[in-house]
From TrEMBL, chain A:
This is ABC transporter permease. GO terms for cellular component: plasma membrane. The chain crosses the membrane at residues 21-39, 73-93, 105-127, 133-152, 173-190, 229-247. Belongs to the binding-protein-dependent transport system permease family. It comes from Xanthobacter dioxanivorans. Residues 67-247 form the ABC transmembrane type-1 domain.
Length: 269, 273
């Protein structure tokens, strides 16, 4: 009896969303450690997980301090890409003319590597937070536009007829039908955007900054401080994960009606 | 068009008058496509009187949905004129409520909020029409589901909610485009009985489109048969069956004879669907 109860509690523990990826993570870290020992990889090429953990622990205050400007730049860039991306998508979806002019150029601009033009922002905006925000914005912008355009365009034409049959005005149709319909797609874009914005901010820090995780990364590579570099990467991944999770929480509040958010299912006849 | 026997036998108040409410004069529709013009509807004329339940039955692609959209003001006719209560229709108007093939309930709104949508859009009095919406939901057997979301309802319940939505702003005319096409046969029969009861109780003028002949005869005061594309009126039949109708009416010799007669139209034209 006690045995069955314990088995159930272990099963319940495994059901928790964070447990499985954490378990896989532990397995991967063990494999990493084993690989270093088996293949005798020197520490200046790949540090051991223990060294990284020690650095994380010892340098935590420094890492946390440097995480602040990176996170700030990421968030600012992300919010900008949402604030500009959604209206641009609305314009593209609502007018064939705008689409034919703007969309191809937008795709074209995406083929330009941001790393290549990031130094330009330093020339224009100096060494402050601006170049980082711009880089984060440029990376985060495109996925928001693409997803939102797709969301606005996939509104059921019958729903539009329904709104029209009620004599709904353009803005009413947008507010009551198109916008809520496109919201799930917009959130899918925002989730991709927020993780890319982290990359953008780091790119900005690579080319011209004296603070942030990106700066720390570059400095530690220059000094061959590999444990420090890996610790910085871990912090970066944590920033991305937390921001992604935040967007996910906002989504759950914004579209509780959507199929992906339904937890209690009621079948009625 | 006098049918005294029907009126005497009916328990519902006499709702029908000879006053025309929808008039079609030489209405046709041709779709412009890249491959040239595709005629969908040949010029047709007919009149629907106030309180009448008119059913249009025809094969797929005979332009019957096009006809309904034109009456709703969603599509302009290529030629001719549609008048509703004497006014020529050029755009959507408030005299109609439309029920589509799919329930088309907004998943982010509760059932009640969905039913209230026309009231919100038109800026009508929320207190007054809110009560009306609840009454309608009650009549449709959905009183307990007012605050549920559409996905928590079965297909039949969703379609009933969409009928409530079409009725909430008290339009004189209800346009229904194969509203029960997606339902299973048993639910469909139940809905037919319900709809007939609701129409009798409210006195609405109904233009109903279907490709089910028994459904057409069961519901209609008058059945309008349409031929294949480009659509024309192949025949018009008065339905001499007493109200209220129950499913037993389907065994009535008059019902059987009329469905047979209508069916012959389609076999002469190469079958339905």
């Amino acid at each position: 009896m006690a045995h069955a109860k314990r088995r159930r509690s272990i099963g319940g523990f495994l059901q928790k969303a964070w447990v499985r990826p954490a378990l896989l993570m532990i397995v991967l870290v063990i494999l990493w450690d084993l690989a270093i020992k088996v293949f005798q990889i020197p520490a200046y090429q790949v540090p051991s997980p223990i060294d990284v953990a020690v650095t994380l622990y010892k340098e935590w205050p420094l890492l946390l301090r440097e995480a602040v400007p990176t996170t700030t730049a990421t968030l600012a860039g992300f919010l900008l890409s949402a604030a500009f991306g959604i209206p641009v998508a609305m314009l593209i979806a609502s007018s064939k003319t705008v689409e034919s002019y703007v969309y191809p150029l937008l795709v074209f601009s995406q083929s330009i590597p941001k790393v290549a033009i990031a130094p330009l922002f330093v020339v224009w905006f100096g060494f402050g937070i601006f170049p980082k925000v711009i880089a984060a914005f440029l990376l985060g912008f495109f996925p928001v536009v693409v997803s939102a355009v797709q969301g606005f365009k996939s509104v059921d034409p019958d729903l539009m007829d329904l709104a029209r049959s009620m004599e709904a005005k353009k803005f009413q149709t947008f507010r009551m039908v198109s916008l809520p319909f496109a919201t799930p797609a917009i959130f899918a874009g925002l989730k991709v955007s927020v993780t890319l914005a982290v990359v953008g901010a780091v790119v900005g820090e690579f080319v011209g900054s004296n603070s942030g995780i990106g700066f720390l990364l570059q400095r530690s590579i220059g000094n061959f401080e590999l444990p420090m570099m890996f610790a910085a990467l871990v912090v970066l991944a944590l920033i991305g994960m937390i921001l992604f999770w935040l967007v996910d929480v906002v989504e759950r509040f914004a579209i509780p009606w959507h199929a992906s958010q339904r937890h209690d299912f009621v079948v009625a006849t | 068009m006098a049918r005294p026997h029907l009126r005497l036998a009916s328990e519902a108040p006499v709702l029908r008058s000879a006053r025309p409410i929808i008039e079609m004069k030489g209405v046709s529709k041709t779709y412009r496509t890249r491959d040239g013009d595709v005629p969908s509807l040949k010029p047709i004329d007919f009149t629907i009187t106030e309180g009448e339940f008119l059913v249009i039955v025809g094969p797929s692609g005979c332009g019957k949905s096009t006809l309904l959209k034109m009456v709703a003001g969603l599509l302009p006719p290529s030629t001719g004129e549609i008048r509703v209560e004497g006014r020529t229709i050029v755009k959507p108007h408030s005299d109609v409520g439309v029920v589509f093939q799919q329930p088309l309930l907004l998943p982010w709104r509760s059932v009640l909020a969905n039913v209230m949508m026309p009231v919100e859009v038109k800026g009508l009095d929320k207190a007054h029409f809110g009560k009306r919406a609840l009454d309608l939901l009650d009549m449709a057997g959905l009183a307990d589901f007012a605050h549920k979301y559409p996905w928590q309802l079965s297909g039949g319940m969703q379609q009933r909610a969409s009928i409530c939505r079409a009725l909430v702003h008290d339009p004189k005319i209800v346009l229904m485009d194969e509203p029960f096409g997606a339902l299973d046969a048993m639910t469909r029969e139940k809905m037919n009985v319900e709809l007939q009861r609701i129409q009798r109780a409210t006195g609405k003028t109904v233009l109903f489109i279907t490709h089910s002949i028994p459904e057409a005869v069961f519901l209609a005061d008058r059945v309008l048969v349409m031929s294949e594309r480009p659509g024309t009126i192949a025949g018009v039949y008065e339905v001499d069956l007493d109200h209220p109708r129950t499913l037993d009416v389907m065994a009535d010799p008059r019902f059987v004879a009329l469905t047979q007669k209508i069916r012959q139209h389609f076999y002469a034209h190469g079958g339905i669907d």
